Every structure is written in structure tokens, then in C-alpha cells.
């Protein structure tokens, strides 16, 4: 009997508050054996991660994938640089935008697809100004208060 794979997904929720999203794309990620096992166990943190482009290839840096408990001496470095698997056309297009407009590339979501492969949703973002962040807080709190009012009357 086939084992059902529950979909594992990790999201950088702080990114929606810090950045304005312009584009996003799905990319594969080159991992070692103990890294994929640690992802399945849930030892992932995307908060400090960012992407850089070097020699026509995209790399993800400072992405935390925790240590695999049964990995002994063959365990991986937790914050090592990992290569992203993307089409060269996408990389060059994004590289131009990052150089011209001063945009940033961040990992937004890491998940395992139905085949069990690790995928990263990478986003091209622009930093929000302080007044944009205040506006986001205001909208979020007004939505919460509206939901409370609806809950009382339903």
C-alpha cells in the first residue's frame, strides 16, 4: 500500500509585511540527503534567507535547514549556500531587474510537491516604506475588527 505524503509547506510570513511582491516563480533546490530528511521533519526557517545571482546561476543564502538527528558525521551545514534550479532566461531577466531597479530576491515558501521533491517559491520584491507598513497594520486590524463584529451577529 502506498504511503500518503502529507504536503509540508513553510512560509516566510514576515515577508508580506516587509516587502511588496512584484513577481514570483517556483524553483527546484539542490539539496544533500540529510537536508531533505530534515525538511520532512520540519526543521526549516526562511526568515533570514535571500537569493543572489552569480555567473548566471541563482543561489539561496542563509536559509536555515536544521540538523537531521540520525545524520551523524554526514550531516550538512545548517546555513550553507544552496543552488536553485531555474531556467537561465528567468535568471537573466531577474538579474537585470535587480541591478536596474534595486529590487531583492527572497525565498517566500518552501514545500514538498506531490512527488516528494523540495521546491522553493522565490519572489522578486521591493522593500516597503514605513508608512506602507503602518497602512498594512491598519488594514489588518480593521479586518480583524470586522470579523469580530460579523462573528457576534452570526
From TrEMBL:
A GO CC term attached to the entry: cytosol
UniProt key word Cytoplasm: yes
Signal peptide: none
Protein location: Cytoplasm
PROSITE patterns referenced in this protein's UniProt entry, alphabetically: SSRP
Molecular functions (GO terms): RNA binding
Family matches, as Gene3D superfamilies: 2.40.280.10
Keyword Cytoplasm attributed: yes
Domain of life the protein comes from: Bacteria
GO biological process, one term: trans-translation-dependent protein tagging
Pfam families named in the record: SmpB
This protein's UniProt keywords: Cytoplasm, RNA-binding
InterPro entries to which the protein is assigned, alphabetical: SmpB, SsrA-bd_prot, SsrA-bd_prot_CS
Purpose of the protein: Required for rescue of stalled ribosomes mediated by trans-translation. Binds to transfer-messenger RNA (tmRNA), required for stable association of tmRNA with ribosomes. tmRNA and SmpB together mimic tRNA shape, replacing the anticodon stem-loop with SmpB. tmRNA is encoded by the ssrA gene; the 2 termini fold to resemble tRNA(Ala) and it encodes a 'tag peptide', a short internal open reading frame. During trans-translation Ala-aminoacylated tmRNA acts like a tRNA, entering the A-site of stalled ribosomes, displacing the stalled mRNA.
Family: Belongs to the SmpB family.
Protein known as: SsrA-binding protein
Organism: Neolewinella xylanilytica
Amino acid at each position: 500500500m502506498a504511503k500518503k505524503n502529507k504536503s509540508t509547506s513553510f512560509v516566510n510570513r514576515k515577508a508580506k509585511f516587509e516587502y511588496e511582491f512584484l513577481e514570483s516563480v517556483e524553483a527546484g533546490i539542490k539539496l544533500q540527503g540529510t537536508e531533505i530528511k530534515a525538511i520532512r521533519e520540519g526543521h526549516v526557517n526562511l526568515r533570514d534567507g535571500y537569493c543572489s545571482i552569480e555567473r548566471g546561476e541563482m543561489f539561496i543564502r542563509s536559509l536555515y535547514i536544521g540538523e537531521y538527528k540520525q545524520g551523524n558525521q554526514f550531516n550538512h551545514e545548517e546555513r550553507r549556500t544552496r543552488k536553485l534550479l531555474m531556467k537561465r532566461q528567468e535568471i537573466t531577466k531577474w538579474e537585470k531587474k535587480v541591478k536596474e531597479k534595486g529590487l531583492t530576491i527572497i525565498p517566500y515558501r518552501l514545500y514538498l510537491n506531490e512527488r516528494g521533491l523540495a521546491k522553493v517559491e522565490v519572489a522578486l520584491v521591493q522593500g516597503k516604506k514605513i508608512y506602507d507598513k503602518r497602512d498594512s497594520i491598519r488594514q489588518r486590524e480593521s479586518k480583524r475588527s470586522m470579523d469580530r463584529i460579523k462573528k457576534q451577529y452570526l
